[in-house]
Input
Amino acid sequence: MLPASNRGTGTNTGFPDTCSTPSSSGSVNIPYPNIASASSASSFSSIVYVGMVNALNLNSSIPNTSGDEAGVLETNMSKAAYTTGNPIVYVEKVPAINLACPSSGNESNCTLAAVILAAVSVVSFTYASDDRGALSRGGVLVRRLDGDGVGVEIAVVTTDIARELRSALDSLGVEHPARFFFDLRGCRGGDLEGALDLASRFAPPGSVLAVVEDEEGDCEERRSTGGPWIGAEVEVVVDGGTASAAEVLAVALRDAAGATLRGERTYGKGRIEVVRGGMLVPAGEVLTPAGDRIEGVGIEPGEAS
Output
């Protein structure tokens, strides 16, 4: 499982970037490191986002690199490029970029480089299990259970997670299961709006799904608009690896849809971050429907508060 890269945090580093450098005996070639920051990428996906920041693919490049400033005879520290992408995951029909993908720096003056620091995100790329008794759609894997229930394993909360679940259920011929078993163990989160949209499909219209608090302390209640699975029996299992949007989904299903929540206390990431000036900065917090904090606390399995 390799963390994905986006136009936020993340660094490519290589060695050697050999540049002419003045010395007392004239210019000499000295090897320097080459460093490229993903936040300054000039080519990136316009429609695919990783952790709410534009995803990078093999067409992405970084206009300027650093590390060889002492090589004043080579003042133009040119672009970094990615030389190999993920062999199975594509972004806009081009191989995606993730941790350890090879790259080059300073207009290929440094050819031995790679992504050594991926995005600070909850999205990772990995192989899906080959389970012919299940159906996978996007970030969700759906299995038939005994009787009239389905198991729903969510690896990442995508923007379209509710549509993906509906598509998987339709394909399995179980459009309206009586029971849902959600496995959110190890799910590091994803898209907040996707989590709220999915929870809304189970909760009566008007039910509070979450409270969003901005940096000034102003709060907005996010409410359900209703959906096709209201009244279904829902069970959710979580653990210490359940984080961010996955925590929001779990507690919304418990408090607004009457789900049973069991397992271990969750990770505790309720902070909202956005990219400004190429950096991730805080933009508020998501609270439980009851107004309790998730950040640094997590969700304790049990009955609704």
Summary: The domain at 128-287 is CATH 3.90.226.10 (2-enoyl-CoA Hydratase; Chain A, domain 1). Residues 212 and 286 are 5 Å apart (CA to CA). The two ends are 35 Å apart (CA to CA). The chain has two domains: 2-117, 128-287.
